[in-house]
Sequence to fold (796 residues):
Amino acid sequence: MSNRPAPTLPTRNRKSTMAQQPETRVSAATPRLDVAHLAKTYGSGGKARTVIEDLTFTVDAGEVVCIVGPSGVGKTTLLKCLAGLQPATSGRAAIDGRTISGPPPEMALVFQDYNRSLMPWLTVRKNLVLPLRHLKLSAAELKERCDSALAAVGLSHADNQYPWQLSGGMQQRVAIARALAYRPEILIMDEPFASVDAQTRFDLEDLCLKIRRDFNMTILVVTHDIDEAVYLADRVVVLGSRPARVLKVVDVDLPAPRDQITTRSLPEFARQRTEVLSLIKRPA
Amino acid sequence: MRNWVIGVAAPVLLLVAWWFLSADSTDPFFPPLQTILVRFQELWLFEHFQSDVLLSLGNLFLGFVIAAAAGIALGFITALVAPVRWMLDPLIHFLRGIPPVALVPIFISLIGFGTQMRVTSIALAALFPTMIATVDGIRSVSNDLLDVSRVYRLTRKERVLKVLLPAATPQIFSGLQVSLQVAFIVMIASEMLGSSQGIGAMTLLAQQSFMTADMWAGILLLGVIGFLVNILFSLLRRRVLSWYIGSRRLARAS
Amino acid sequence: MKASVRPYAFSIVGVAGALVIWQLLAEAKVAGTALPPATTVFTTLATILGTGTFWSSLGATIGIALLALALSAVAGVALGLLVGSFESVKYATLAVLEFLKPVPPIVILPLAVLVLGPTAEMSLFLVVFGCLLPIVMQTVDGVQGTDPVARDTARSYGMGEGEILARVVLPSAMPYIGTAMRVAAPAALVVTVVAGLLGGGPGLGQNIYQAQAAGDYAGLYGLVIVLGVLGLLFQGATRLAERRVLHWHESYREVVPR
Fold:
C-alpha cells in the first residue's frame, strides 16, 4: 500500500516490489515523471546505433503531455525505456523520484499495434481481467473494475466477444479499457490512434481527456499527428534530429475543456500548431 | 450443395464398384469385397476385439499421451532456458531425421518384445514432432504480447501458463498432429516386428499365411482406425483452437 | 566467453556429453550386450563403410527413394492439374483422398508384399503411394490459388487452355508443389526404409532388420546413425533445390530496404 497521498482514485490493492526505494512524498513540486539526459544506444562497437541522445523533460501530476517528432526519431524507444521494458544506456528516468529499472506498478502502457497487444484467445472481459489477477482482488471488485472500464470506453455490450471480432477502433478502446481497469496513475500511449479512422480518432482523443478529468490521471501520449498533440496536451515535447533530442517544450495555452469543433477553430490553435510544425520541419 | 453431394457420392460409388467388380473374383490376392467384410466382422467384432484391437489402441493412446505431455514439457524447457536449447539443438536435429520405424529394432534389442517396448517406441518416436513444434511456437510468440505481460507485471507463472502456452497452442497442435501420425505408424511397425498380438501383428501373420481375406480385413481396420483417430483429433483441435480458427477465417475474409 | 560463441560452445558440450553418457552406460552394461559402447559402434561403422555391400545398399535406398519421388512428382502434378481444373472432378477426388490421407503406406504394406514380393518394385510402389497423395492435393490447392486476373489476362491474349495451364497455372502452383516436395522428399526416404525393414525390400532398411535379427548391435546402431545423417542430407538438398527453383517467388525475395 502506498504512503503517498493518493490522487482521487478508488483504493488500490497492489503489491509493490519497489519497497526498497526510498519513499518520496509527492508534492506539487515533484514531477511524477522526470527524464534527465536519457540516452539509448543499440549494439556496440562499429555497429552501435544511438537512437536517443539526450532527452530531458518532466511530466507533472495530472498533466497531459504529448511527444511529437518526425517518424523514426526514436519515440517508441523512449517509451520502452520509460515503461521499464528496456534499460537506458545512460541518463535517468524516474517516477516520483524513483529510478525506473523495471515496469513500475503504477504505470500502464497502451501499445500502437492493438492487433498484437490483445490476447486473441481471451474475450474482451477476460483480456481486462488478465492483468488484475495477481493483484488479488475480490470477485466483486474485479467485476466492478471491468464494468466501469468498459463503460468508460463505451464497450459494455462487447464484453463477451473476442478482440478480433471487433473493428480497429473498438480494439484500441479495449486496450484502453484494459489500462483503465488496471487503475494506473500514469498512462503512456504509443501512437494509440494512428491505426484508426479519423472519426474514431476524434472520439478517442476526447475519451483521453475524459479519463484525465475523471481519474486525475497523468497521461503521456506519443504521436506524429501535430493537430492531435496540440488538441490534447497541456505541454508538447518536440523531438528532433536523429538521434533524438528535445528541441523545445511548448506550453499549450488553449482553454479547457477542449472541444473538437470550437477548440480547433480557435486562432490560438493554428498558431500553436504552426509553432510545433516549424520546429519539426526546421533543418537539423 | 452440388459439390457436397458429389463429395459424399464419390467414395460410396467407388465402394459399390469395388463390391461388384470383385464379386466373383477367384484371384488369390483380391478376394470379393463381400468375403472381406464377412471376415472383418468375424475377426474384429468381437472375437479379437479385446485381445487385439483394444490392445493396439491402448498402446497407441498411452504412447501418444506420454509423447504429447513430455514433448510439450520438454519443449517449454528447451524454449525458455537458452543453455538447454543450445545443448539439445544439434542432437534433436539429428535424431528427428531418423525414420521413426528404424528405432523399433533398437528398442526391441533393449527392452524385448513386450508391451513396454511398444509403448516406449511409440512414445519416443512421437515425442520429437511435438517437442520441436512447441519450441517453435514459444519462440515465435509476438514480442508485443510479451511486452504487455511485462508492463502489467504478470507473474512468471502467469506469463508461462496464461500467455506463452495459449499463444503457442496453434503450433503445438500442428506438432501433435504429426506426432499422432508417427505414433500410429510406429504402433503398427512395433507389432509387425516383434509381437504376436495386435492388429498389425495379426495382419502380417495373415499375409504370411496367405489368409488373404483376413489380411484385407486387417488393412481395412487399420485404415478405418487411422481415419477415425484423425477425425477425433480434428474435432479436439476445433474445440481448443476455436479462437484461432475464427480469427484466421476473419483475417482471410478481409 | 563472448556471447556469440556461447551457443556453439554449449552445442559442442551437448553432443560430447551425450556421447560420454552413452559410453558410460554401455560400459556399465546397463542393458547387457544390447547397448554397445559408442567407441565400438563407431569402429564398426567405419568397417561397414569400407564394404561394397554397404554402398550398394545405400545406393538402392537412395535410388528407390529418388525414383519414386520423381514418379510421384510427375504423376502427382499431372493429376493435380487435371483434377484441379474441373470442379466436379475436384470435389469427387478430394472426397476420396480425404479418406486416404490419414492412411500411411505401412497399412498396405502386407498387401504390397503379397502381390509384389520383397522386391524393389514393392518398395517403389509403397513410396509412390505415400508421396503421391500430398503432391496431388497440394497441386490442386495451387491450381485453386491461381490469380484469376493472371488467367484472364492470358486468355485475353488468345492463349489456349492448355497453354494457360502450362504457362500460367503451373508456375503459380509451383510454391504449393514446392512445399509438397519438401515434405515428400524426407517421407520418401522414410518409407523406403520402412519397406526394407518390414517388407524385405532392398536397401538399408533390410540391413537394419538383418543386423537386429543377427544380434549385431554395433552394426544396428551404426546403420541407424547412417540413416540420421542421410536424413539430414535429404532435408538440406531439398531446401537447396526448392530455393533454386523458386527463387523468383515472393517468399524468397530479399526485402529491399526503403
